[in-house]
Amino acid sequence: MELENRAPSTLRERYLHLLDELAAEKRAAGRSNDPVRIVAVTKKQPRETVLRAIEAGIGEIGENYVQEAKGKFDGLPPVRKHFLGHVQTNKAKAIVEAFDSVQSVDRIDAGRALAKAARTSGKPLPVLLQVNVSPVDRFGTKPEEAEHLAEALRREGLDVDGVMAIGPITEDRGEIRRAFERAARAFERVGGTTLSLGMSGDWREAIQAGSTMLRLGTALFGERRTSV
Ligand SMILES: *Cc1c(COP(=O)(O)O)cnc(C)c1O
C-alpha cells in the first residue's frame, strides 16, 4: 500500500485531513475567506478521547447530556463547551454551570430557565435557536416561528446568537440542501453570528448553504460506542 494513499488513521490525521477537505469545499462554494468553526461532538466518547482531541488542536467540543458531560469536563485544558441536547428546564442550572453555550433552545420556557440560571451565575451564555427542518428531528421550533421566538428570548435577556439545525436523514442530497437553505433563511431573520449546520454525513451541503459551524462526531472519532 502506498503511504500517501493511506486513509487517515489517527485522530490528529483525521482532523488535519478534514481541515483540508473543508478548505476545498469552502473554495468550491466561493467561501474561502469565511471562518467556519468545528465543534467536535464527544458524546459517548471517553474522557481520554476528549483529551486527545484537544491535543490534536480541537478548541470546541459538544455534548448532548449534562450528566455524561460533567464526568468528562473536570480538569480539561481550556476548551469551549457547547450543549447540544434537549434542554429540560430543571437542568438549566446544571447546563449553565457546565457549558459555555447552548445550541438547542427551541421554546420559551427552556430559554427563560437558561436566562435565569445565567443571570444567577453571572456567566455570559450565548445561545442558538434550534430550528426544525427535518421530519426526523423531534425538537426545534418551526422555521417560520424562529424570529418571533428570538425576539421573545431576547426580551428575557438571553444572548441569541443564531440558529442550529439538524439535517434530514436521507441519501437525497437535494433534500438535505433544501432543508439547510430553510435553516439559513431562518438565520437571516433571527440574526446573530452563528449558523450551526452540518454533521459528519452532510457537512458539505451545510457549507454550500452558508454554515459557519460544523458539529462533527463520527468524522473525527469513528463510530460511537454504545455506552461510555
Ligand atoms: C451526535 C450529534 C452530532 C454529531 O453527529 P455525527 O454524525 O457523528 O457527526 C452533531 N449534532 C448533534 C446535535 C448531535 O446530536
Can you describe what's shown?
Helix 4 (92-98) packs across helix 5. The chain has 228 residues and is of the alpha/beta class. The model has no long low-confidence stretch (mean pLDDT 94). It has an 8-stranded parallel sheet with strand order 7-6-5-4-3-2-1-8. The protein is built from 9 helices and 8 strands. It is globular and about 50 Å long. Helix 5 (108-121) links the parallel strand 4 (101-105) and strand 5. The protein has one domain (11-220): TIM Barrel, CATH 3.20.20. The chain has helices at residues 11-28, 47-55, 66-73, 92-98, 108-121, 146-155, 173-190, 203-208, 218-221, and strands at residues 37-41, 60-63, 80-83, 101-105, 126-130, 159-165, 194-197, 213-216. The site of pyridoxal-5'-phosphate has 13 residues, from strand 8 and helix 9.
Secondary structure blueprint with pairings:
Elements: H1 11-28, E1 37-41, H2 47-55, E2 60-63, H3 66-73, E3 80-83, H4 92-98, E4 101-105, H5 108-121, E5 126-130, H6 146-155, E6 159-165, H7 173-190, E7 194-197, H8 203-208, E8 213-216, H9 218-221
Parallel strand pairs: 1-2, 1-8, 2-3, 3-4, 4-5, 5-6, 6-7
Pyridoxal-5'-phosphate binds at residues 41, 43, 64, 84, 166, 199-201, 215-219.
